[in-house]
Amino acid sequence: MRLHIVLTSQKRVVLPWDYLNMLRGFLYSAIRRSKPELGEFLHEQGFVAEGHRYKLLNFSLLFPKSAKAIKTAIEMIPPIHWWVSSPFVSTLEALVLTLLSEGKVRLGKIDLEVEKVEVERSPELGNQGIFKTLSPIVVSSGIYKNGKLEHLFLSPEDEKFWKVLEQNLRRKAKVLGINAPAEPLKFEKIGKWRSKLFEIETTKVKGWEGSFFVQGPSELIKIGYEAGFGERNTQGFGMVRLKAHLP
Predict the structure, then answer these.
(1) Which residues share a beta bridge with 202?
(2) Between the CA atoms of 29, 34, 36 and 40, what dihedral angle is there, to the nearest 10 degrees?
(3) pLDDT score, position 38
(4) What Å distances lie between residue 36 and 28, 29, 83, 103, 161, CA to CA?
(5) In Å, what is the CA distance from 205 to each residue of 24, 212, 223?
(6) CA distances from 85 to 81, 108, 160, 187 (A)
(7) What's the CATH number where 64 sits?
(8) Which string of b and e fits 194-232 if b means at least 16 CB within 10 Å?
């Protein structure tokens, strides 16, 4: 399930480049205000598979009418479009309750009016399609350096990027109780990708934006669409939209 949220304001909106932290904070608090137990579970626990923890909640970057960089911030002209997605309807229902009852989204000291909230009709995802990122995809690999485990952020130019991406989707399938076929996913990068660097809770996170083709088990492709591709989905990474559906 996916929500399309339209936000507006009577004046220009200025947010820091790392506004993903604000969006994440709003989401957790909004869900908690409607359904306290669910909000607490998502924030403190989540779901675990093979030692990895997943919240199965994903959201996009903000897409304003127009935007420009100003020093260490970004100035946006409303209306602003935002997408939030999850395989669990109850999670998004809790968010909708807060959005409709309060009528605003507070990001730091800025209040944005909720102009519209709509449930997007889910596309019929088959076993192949072309997707474009709505937020950067993050994929990393753990390496030991000087006796400490560090995360190396991978590039889509690296074959390991796509292998780790599939492993991530299969762990999410286990969390959801989905027995996906063993047939591997086949990925193909389309055009040029560009990297973006964010600071999430004092940690530098590198993600990649672009388009890609994927073919394989439809169950895994659907999980990627609803829960996000790659890592840190609940921090605003890995959301995609369908560019083209292939028979």
Answers:
(1) none
(2) -40
(3) 82
(4) 10, 9, 22, 19, 37
(5) 15, 21, 23
(6) 14, 22, 26, 22
(7) 3.30.70.1890
(8) eebebebeeeebbbbbbbbbbbbbbbbbbbbbbbbbbbb
Domain that holds residue 186: 128-245
Transcribe 51-106 into DSSP letters: TEEE---EE---EEEEEEEETTEEEEEEEEEEEEE-S-HHHHHHHHHHHHHH-EEE
Q: What is the CATH number of the domain that holds 135?
A: 3.30.70.1900
Dihedral angle over CA of 61, 64, 68, 69, nearest 10: -30
> Across the 247 residues of the chain, what is the mean pLDDT of every consecutive 10-residue run?
96 94 95 87 70 85 96 94 95 96 95 96 90 97 74 93 96 92 96 94 93 97 97 96 74
Give the pLDDT confidence score for residue 209 in this predicted structure: 98
C-alpha to C-alpha distance for 191 and 212, rounded to whole angstroms: 8
Give me the pLDDT at residue 50, please: 65
Say what the pLDDT of residue 51 is. 66
